[in-house]
Structure formats: structure tokens, C-alpha cells
Design goal:
single chain; alpha+beta; 3-stranded antiparallel sheet; 11% strand; globular
Length: 198
């Protein structure tokens, strides 16, 4: 997501290499087919750590290379939080889940971005929306509406941490790293926008 007037990099920042972890950490991944296209899900023993939109073969390879570097080694075959995330996301897309309970691993986010994303995750419920300025106010940084847009663009956990619920102050839906059509579909699923006719 971006500030109202700008587009930002994809929410999963596909070309940004995170700083490597201090030590080897266990992690696993899976790809989940959804109505908005395939999602790559990655989790650690602490929780869901990344959701990547449009996870075709090329995007998946790039994401996995970055995660291997960050976590200091190859993935395991599975981690319990990964199965929970996949089950909950499937239920969300089937309109059977409104609140995610899978633990989140915030290690791919830090500083102001992490603060904004954590407030978004806890304070903006299913079917609700918030403006960039309002979110800046909620984190105690009223002059940081543009920085909120950048934080949305760096969100490593889109859908679960609902950056699609951040909208422009002029009534528009704003930008979105997963693409505006994806944002419209997510907002329609939650009843914020009318469902597409076809």
C-alpha cells in the first residue's frame, strides 16, 4: 500500500534483501492457491514471517533465496505455524474467518514500519478501513502520513496484516503492492466494496 498520491514497491518488497539473522533459524514455506492468485507463505517457530503475492515460479525462487540468506540455511519440510496460516487463509478466502490467530514473526520488519504494522494488525478489524493520516495519528506520529505509506509498502505479511484496509483520504482506495485489482478483491471480500460483477 502507498500514500494516497504515490505508488510504492510491492508489499512484499521482492527485491529488498533483509539483513541476515544473527544465527541459523528454522523456517518452512508453502504455496497456497487463493482467489487472488498463489501466495507464498513462510513461517518460523515464532510464527508466520512472510506472505508473498503472485507467487509464480520466478517470484517464489527469488523469495526463497532471500529467506535462505536471512535465516542462514535451507527450509525444513514443515512448521506448525505454517499449517495454521494456510488453514486460516483458506478459511478467510472462503468467508469463514474474520480474525487471524496465527502468531506473527516480525523479524522482517523493524522500527517505525513495525510499529505501524502492529497497530494496523490489532486496531483495524475485518470490514473496516483507515486512512494514512489516521494511522499516523494512532502511532503517535501525526506528521508521518507519507511514512505510513512506505510502511505499508514494506509489509512482509499482507492480507494477515491488512494493509489493504488502508485507504486514501480523498475516498480513493490508494495504492497497493499486490496490485489495485487484488486490493479491490480483498475489500470486496470484506464487504467494504461491492463484489465484482465478473
Amino acid at each position: 500500500m502507498t500514500h494516497a498520491e504515490q505508488d510504492s514497491p510491492p508489499a512484499t518488497a521482492p527485491d529488498a534483501a533483509p539483513e541476515p539473522a544473527a544465527a541459523r533459524r528454522d523456517w518452512a514455506w508453502t504455496r497456497l492457491e487463493t482467489p487472488i492468485g498463489p501466495l507464498l507463505l513462510a513461517a518460523t517457530r515464532a510464527g508466520l514471517v512472510q506472505v508473498v503475492f503472485h507467487a509464480d515460479e520466478r517470484t517464489t525462487r527469488r523469495a526463497l533465496t532471500r529467506l535462505e540468506q536471512f535465516f542462514g540455511g535451507p527450509p525444513l519440510s514443515g512448521i506448525p505455524h505454517l499449517a495454521t496460516a494456510a488453514t486460516e487463509l483458506s478459511a478467510y478466502f472462503a468467508d469463514q474467518l474474520r480474525t487471524f490467530t496465527v502468531p506473527l514473526d516480525w523479524s522482517l520488519s523493524s522500527g517505525f514500519s513495525a510499529r505501524v504494522l502492529q497497530v494496523l494488525a490489532t486496531d483495524v478489524p475485518y470490514g473496516g478501513v483507515v486512512g494514512y493520516q489516521d494511522l499516523a495519528d494512532r502511532v503517535g506520529e501525526p506528521g508521518a502520513a507519507r511514512a505510513v505509506g512506505a510502511a505499508m509498502g514494506s509489509n512482509p505479511l499482507p492480507v494477515v496484516v491488512p494493509c489493504h484496509r488502508v485507504v486514501a483520504s480523498d475516498g480513493g482506495i490508494g495504492g497497493f503492492g499486490g496490485g489495485l485489482e487484488t486490493k479491490r478483491l480483498l475489500l470486496a471480500l470484506e464487504g467494504v466494496l461491492p463484489a465484482p460483477l465478473f
